[in-house]
Design goal:
The chain has 586 residues and is an alpha/beta fold. The chain has 19 helices and 18 strands. Strand 4 and strand 5 (168-170) form a beta hairpin. It starts with a helix and ends with a helix.
Length: 586
């Protein structure tokens, strides 16, 4: 009877397939971006240790998605982006006790480290939340009250395994035994490898088991709800297994560092329920204003917290009469020289050092270019140097240097495009035609690049978007190398029109590259666009049109003076080959 009543609560009746909640969630995928709001979130990061590159990677993915959307929908009021710190729970309580400080002191110190890192890395969030804030306590306790009023919480005896490191309860099937430090066999989490202990206590329990079918229906009717696809299928597979009710509180005598259960000070709200509600707190919950932002929400999370976001969180939302989030973007982890990052191994990479060593834009580019959400990616210093020198210093920076060098472009302008030298129809012959088949291939690739990049962003494949840009940079360098403008003479009537056309095409390519790189390398892109003389109002994606003169339209940049000299676009990190860049500038 309880199962039927919960289904009715959610809007299901008989064989009816989708409730109004799911309909509104699906609509977000069909709406024109101009007509909808978008709300991007990172996880809130646990403050038991200093931030590492995995935390920064989560924030950069969300930042790039958010920046890309702002370039498509310039109205800043239509986009929000939140991050923050998770500051309650047993781990914080224990870490503070070990350090001999009050929990709030530990939280203040580590939360500040995250805020400083994200500010340094150019994370363009609109809100940074801490779960110790008063506004969050109000939201969590209200959310709890809604669940209770709907009959979805009951008090019962919980007995089973609990992992303090992961702050989660585990069924018997998710526990294994491994030799401990003393050689004795110890129980550990099958998924994380962290130690677990047997717990028996009276807690409040959420009727999670009643949401197995609603969750399955939500996912099957929204195949884009979880991206990449392997994680989507993984969640569906989890939902084929038994879904037991979930303990959502702990005894206050055991866990005092958290939000008390309303009306029962003997219990503290489970840290994950507390943490997940942050996504609502930020947009004004429980005030009515939050409804204008929910469920137009995209969560960016690591794969280790997928179950909490793809099963527990949607079930809790449905229980409270709300829709699941619009999309959940999942990414994998970073290893270091083939090994998992670990304090015990001493191989945790400090992202602040990396931002100093490789520059902010350089390290942003590396993580987003090399990070593939579907599988773990490996970090080592040599890889960073090789990638940044090759793609930013040599390929992109070298291309800019060639096109703006005084010997090749003495007027310092965007030269005119000659349609007789480069006719719009390939295959035409004549004394003035200079364009070759490979040049038309470049124009075709560049014309389709903005749409291709947009599709990659929509599919959470930022690394593929950067790969596509890099491929076109190589093609453009090939175009310049093929026609060698340094061998042409402005004084020669036969050469001048073609020389101007070669530079015009190359500068147009650079303008498109810089515009598309803004979400990933905002400072470098700004430097490049400023050098090209592109104003702040000409940098959006909505009106990005490559080489309009080729298609018979006027080009607003033709004849315009370039911006002032800004030095090297991206200095080489390996100075042993710096002479190549200097050669391109002469």
């Amino acid at each position: 009877m309880l199962r039927i009543s919960v289904l009715r609560l959610l809007g299901y009746s008989g064989t009816r397939r989708v409730s109004r909640h799911y309909g509104s969630g699906s609509q977000c995928t069909r709406d024109d971006p101009q007509d909808t709001r978008a709300y991007f979130t990172t996880p809130i990061f646990y403050v038991n240790a200093a931030p590492h590159i995995g935390h920064l990677y989560s924030a950069l993915l969300a930042d790039a998605l958010c920046r890309h959307r702002r370039l498509r929908v310039p109205r800043t009021a239509a986009t929000r982006f939140s991050t923050g710190t998770d500051e309650h729970g047993l781990k914080i309580q224990q870490a503070a006790a070990t350090a001999g400080v009050a929990p709030i002191e530990l939280c203040d110190r580590v939360s500040a480290q995250f805020q400083q890192l994200f500010q340094k890395a150019g994370i363009s969030s609109t809100d940074f939340i801490r779960t110790t804030e008063a506004r969050h306590r109000v939201a969590v306790q209200h959310f709890w009250g809604v669940l209770k009023s709907r009959g979805l919480l009951y008090k019962g005896l919980y007995e089973g395994w609990y992992c303090a490191s992961d702050e989660c309860f585990l069924p018997e099937a998710k526990v294994t035994w491994q030799p401990g430090p003393s050689g004795d066999s110890c129980p550990v989490s099958l998924e994380s490898g962290h130690p677990v202990s047997w717990t028996k206590e009276e807690n409040y329990i959420f009727r999670l088991s009643q949401f197995q079918e609603p969750l399955q229906r939500w996912l099957r009717s929204n195949p884009q709800a979880i991206t990449p696809e392997p994680f989507y299928h993984g969640v569906l597979q989890w939902l084929e297994e038994e879904l037991p009710d979930l303990s959502v509180s702990r005894r206050s005598s055991h866990l005092h560092w958290g939000i008390p259960v309303p009306g029962d000070d003997s219990q503290t709200i489970y840290v994950w329920l507390d943490a997940l509600v942050n996504y609502l707190t930020i947009i004004g919950y429980p005030n009515a204003e939050f409804k204008s932002w929910w469920p137009a929400t995209s969560h960016i999370i690591g794969k280790d917290i997928l179950k909490f976001h793809a099963i527990y969180w949607p079930a809790l939302l449905l229980g409270a009469g709300l829709s699941p989030p619009h999309r959940i973007y999942v990414h994998s982890h970073w290893t270091v020289c083939g090994q998992k990052m670990s304090k015990s191994l001493g191989n945790v990479v400090d992202p602040r050092t990396c931002l100093d060593r490789y520059t902010v834009d350089g390290f942003r580019y590396f993580l987003l270019r090399q990070g593939v959400p579907s599988w773990d990616c490996d970090y080592y210093d040599e890889k960073v140097v090789k990638l940044l020198d090759s793609e930013l210093a040599d390929a992109l920076g070298g291309l800019l240097n060639r096109c703006t060098a005084k010997r090749i472009n003495p007027s310092g302008t965007y030269p005119a495009f000659c349609t007789t030298c480069f006719p719009s129809k390939p295959g035409l012959v004549g004394p003035s035609v200079r364009a070759q088949a490979e040049d038309y291939a470049l124009v075709s690739a560049m014309a389709s690049l903005p749409k291709q990049v947009a599709e990659y962003y929509d599919n959470f494949q930022i690394y593929k978007a950067l790969e596509a840009v890099s491929s076109c940079v190589r093609q453009t360098n090939g175009f310049v190398q093929r026609h060698a403008p340094w061998k042409l003479n402005w004084e020669s009537p036969a050469d001048a029109l073609w020389l101007g056309t070669v530079l015009h095409v190359a500068l147009e390519c650079l303008r498109v590259f810089a515009t598309l790189l803004q979400p990933v390398t905002p400072n470098l892109a700004d430097k490049l666009l400023s050098r090209l003389g592109v104003s702040a109002t000409e940098r959006g994606l909505g009106d990005l049109f490559f080489l309009p003169r080729f298609y018979g339209h006027p080009c607003p940049f033709e004849g315009r003076r370039l911006g002032p000299e800004t030095g090297l676009l991206f200095p080489r990190l390996d100075q042993s080959r710096a002479w190549l860049v200097k050669a391109h500038r002469t």
